[in-house]
């Protein structure tokens, strides 16, 4: 037995010595053009009509393509053709509808996949047709798909009705649900707003003018999907579900999907951009124009400009749930970029610039404001803080708004990663005014106290109870990190004498409170679906109030003046009248204070010197096809940065021996005696 | 014997049924299906999509009693699914749970089995050594060190290990996993080290007590008196006799090798069953969580029966009535 | 009820129980000797525990300044209840964000501190004094360990002793409940319970108690079975002493040493489990587990911010070490054999 113990000990030590290297990849991969990146949460689904989270889009936007895309470098965001030959014009029709005619590229093929043998001709691949785009759009309406974007896209004529018909047929007609999916759609069709006139022609008709519809065609929701893949990947008989595969036309193919540890995308050699470099398609060529900052960050490097995409051979994504490992591996050179996670990394960034140590290692810092807003919201239906409290409630909200220092919040928790918000609209969105300063978003405790006196809460004391006014701050996030953030606000209000209590429950209980309207104050964030002010200002539209069926207007803000302005603003082109309406809405919000706007998040990305063509984007769109890595400098640096420190091993062994020897000696002596 | 076995099995079955009932009360009496749905398909999802999701997952059934069809209830469905091992799909992302279990078992076993196989002999060796030098300073220092080791929170072991070995000394990757044989040892080294350190304290202390107790028995004294070598006595007499209590202590752990090491897997990014469980906790994925608890209980009950059985076979003094 | 009144009540309850034991036990010669022996063996560890208890008590008694200050809105901090421990520190002992131990300036940015060279262990991200936070953690730790044991041990006795004594259906029922709970992995059971019943301090203690009483219940049942067959118990039965009276006079006193040993051994387990729960977001506010969890990412800063993590894990470690050392002594002195099986 003792021998066995020694042997296992020796084997263990041997294994440890053998394993002594911190390279998380096989050593043979060093020479490849692989882009290494980390993700902090596994993707929920790869179904393009359903996926809504950043990591979902990171994966599938490389595999699926959209009819339109965004220009990689130009800001404000501008649409360019993707699978479509050009960006279509709006064509108003006599009956008030608007038509968009898309022409698809010919010679675009889906990547090889066993699903295509379903079609019967035994070939593993198929050419893209306009009907695939239509199929994808119809899936949005399919109740079984559960797409989250049906409501905005219901502006397409007949789309919502199609979903209802499909549902009816499935419930009422025996055997219908067992039909092949394309057959089901054919029988429930046609949809007047989605017309396929030719294999390469697609017509979309919206009921009213809705210029934002084009943005939807740059989002993964409208990606063409082959019906064969939906039919084949049904999760039965050992086949994965459609949400776990990706069958698209894009520059990469999903070759490995262990989403709880590792995702691998390989270059698709049959991609149309690679097959037809002579087309010089904007979405398949590295752009030659950009913004002034592109010259500085090397994203207009002549070595890249005008070359056919993609540059990478493979993309390796690893799950990193914890920040320490993710960041450590980045500094060791094992990830090519690090989107600086939740917590600030002072090692990397001091006062918004890269630290000298990291700059000396050849790293770069890229920052870009994301089109989003984080805010504290009041439940406007609440008796104390809401509009039910009338003037008194408004004064209280104004005072509380004045006490919260958005700049200080950014400094402490996000290391200045973001800009203090003055209104719901972030930079880069039409209607954002850099000059605008919200008078209630500049901290002023004296004025806040005066407002409280006016509201009848002098010194924060509720005259009814003669105690500090108690307000509850509800959250569904119990993590310790966010608790600290909430404490920051609570401390701020404490300075006014208010007694704000943190009610951190689990997500379910929080949702339950929200549903019952039993909440007063919450923190929320919104990231744009597309770069249009409508996508922000609708968050306060009374039609979408939480209390009226669970809409995203969690503040339950309902103001007829605001609603009227919103109607005038929402479906307009970006003109002066729209700008004027937006300014009026902003003034209204400034006074009413349903929100305390906190900040617009800013993405900091740290990248190594060997990663080229990296520009932050901020929208869920494909970007990795523009990246390039230089394997040799990377391998050299990794080797230099990762020499193991071995002496502590010897010290530990020495200590153990030193402890044992005297004991053994004494024991021997005693035995002899 | 067979009557005993039958009774034992029946008890096991009753226990498992009890566990299932408990789980039902815990998970389905509290959470609103709507919240689970929102969590799964997103905050932005419209109400129709939520309703559809709830229907797809069968959460629209009556909970306990359905006047039209008594069998069409969530309770019955819960028992039916668990007892037939038809686990259904995850609440969080619709992946079949059985598929996830198959994927997670490998990485879990890759960590827990070496941890068990290395940990037991290591703890035995140290305990034997300490017991061998009993009443000397090695014994005292050893016991104090063991208590020190078991007084440190596993969180500190993990964070300290990652920081010291992963970041400062750069011996191994700080986290991660790959089944690739050329790198798997690298990934497992650090979690193994941390796991060994975390477990060794209490094990050594326990085994030492058992050994010391055994060495104070008459037959051992006789053996010493006869002049048998110390090492020989320890190896030949003390160890085998002490193995019975030690093994019962260890065998109980075996079933839990399959359920994985929650914290180690999660911190070191090993995609095993422990990680799956932690993810399920964070995502409020009750469908997965109940399967994990159920399987844990099933394995535990099975392990207990086997232990009892092995006990009878190994030790003739134990008779089963 | 105001939060500070509730904690005061819980502390009072714990004190009453402790006081009762301190008054009752030394009157018995057996216990007096044992206690002296334990004190002789582990003077340092006992002193350590006493210190922790003292700090926790200081922090548990809190009161509010009399409300003379309706007009004094300038110092609304006074309106809050502050504990005796907090009163040992200056009022408003806060900075804007991190500062190193005994630093004069903020860690980032270098703005001068409001209380330079006064923060012995530095400040955390919100500028709170780490020493104060760490000391306050003692109360939470003792609450977790003490209150949970106070729920779990009576529960176990209440179920285990009658089950062992009366046997039959009752025994079957208790055995069923116990084996059901025992067969679920305890950490999962904990999580499930906390998710179901909520996250307050009482709920978490209750969940810990539900998972923790099982082992002791078995032990109590087994011991009762053994005691039932003893001569004097049989004699008492033969004399027609009522069953409940026998339980109270003869069985329970003979379980006391088990109760003490279980209490000490379970205590450290509980405090360590709380740290793990904190990591899952289910811990108690202000616990060391939560501090450790908050400080987790500070290790990836450069220069590393270690004082937060170091203070919390140091305090946790020393308490557990003291309790474990005392636990060893208690076990050796009281009964080395019965308890070994479940260590």
Any key phrases for this structure?
A: 673 residues, alpha+beta, 3 domains, 4-stranded mixed sheet, globular, C: 343 residues, mainly alpha, MetI-like fold, 2 domains, two-stranded antiparallel ribbon, 67% helix, 1% strand, disordered C terminus
Task: State the gist of this model.
The complex is a heterotrimer of chains A (673), B (321) and C (343). Chain B is an all-alpha fold and 321 residues long.
Can you offer a commentary on this structure?
The complex is a heterotrimer of chains A (673), B (321) and C (343). Chain A is an alpha+beta fold and 673 residues long. Chain A has three domains: 2-19 and 644-672; 44-296, Periplasmic binding protein-like II (D-Maltodextrin-Binding Protein, domain 2), CATH 3.40.190.10; 372-603, Roll (Dipeptide-binding Protein, domain 3), CATH 3.10.105.10. Chain A has 22 helices and 24 strands. In chain A, the strands form eight sheets. In chain A, strands 11, 14, 15, 16, 21 and 22 form a six-stranded antiparallel beta sheet that branches. Chain A has a four-stranded mixed beta sheet with strand order 1-10-9-8, with helices on one face. In chain A, helix 5 crosses helix 6, helix 13 (390-403) packs antiparallel against helix 15 (445-455) and helix 19 packs antiparallel against helix 20. The longest helix of chain A is centred in the C-terminal third of the chain and has 26 residues, at 647-672. The two termini of chain A are 29 Å apart. The mean pLDDT of chain A is 87. Chain B has two domains: 2-83, no CATH class; 105-314, MetI-like fold, CATH 1.10.3720.10. Chain B has 14 helices and no strands. In chain B, helix 5 packs across helix 8, helix 5 crosses helix 13 and helix 13 runs antiparallel to helix 14. Chain C folds into two domains: 3-131, no CATH class; 135-342, MetI-like fold (Orthogonal Bundle), CATH 1.10.3720. In chain C, helix 5 packs parallel to helix 8 (201-228), helix 5 (130-166) packs antiparallel against helix 10 and helix 6 packs across helix 8 (201-228). Chain C is elongated and about 80 Å long. Chain C has 343 residues and is mainly α. Chain C has a two-stranded antiparallel ribbon with strand order 1-2. Chain C contains twelve helices and two strands; from the N terminus they run αααββααααααααα.
